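One chain shown below:
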Amino acid sequence: MNILIVDDHQLIRSGLRDLLHNKYSDIATSEADKGSVALNLIDEQSFDLAIVDLFLPGEAAFVFIRKLCDKRPELPVLVLSASEDNAHIRKCIDLGACGFVMKSAPQADLIKAIDITLAGGVYIPVDLTQQDSAGKQPALNLADVTSTLTDRQLEILCMVAEGKTNKEIARQCQVSDNTIKVHVSAILKSLNLSNRTQIGILGQKLGLVNTAQQQLSSRH
């Protein structure tokens, strides 16, 4: 397993490196202190996960996350940031990141996030999940979702819950990016959701990660 660590603070990078090597066997890590170095590294090597800081020197907010997710949409990106702004978390997920961990969070939360993203899931802090559950997001069960969505929409919802970007979904479904955007908009409207983050939260709650085919099979 090869993990890329991107942070401008050497202490953070070395702490992450030690944690990863102590927790996981057969692991290799590479480090970058700026976005341009990280982008060069992913051209040279194949990585299983990138753990990246949200705000890097010489990069406007969110620009590096967008560049990384666009350049390697198949690479899980886990954001590790001092920010505790829920809007920042939602923005990162919407850009294609597979998870967000606050630097103030317990070490166990970071390990959990790494395991979830490596397994193809999306990790969202519990506080945000609870906030969305208590706010706009309605209480939906699996029967509500499967009876409301078409087969294609259910398949796409599952893939969004797995952390796939629109580009990845379009490639897998062999349709255009715009077609996927239309489907995602229809899913949001049909389920009365506000954004992709809520789709990810809903997918986690209903256990839809890596279950698209099983859910579709159960309908036939």
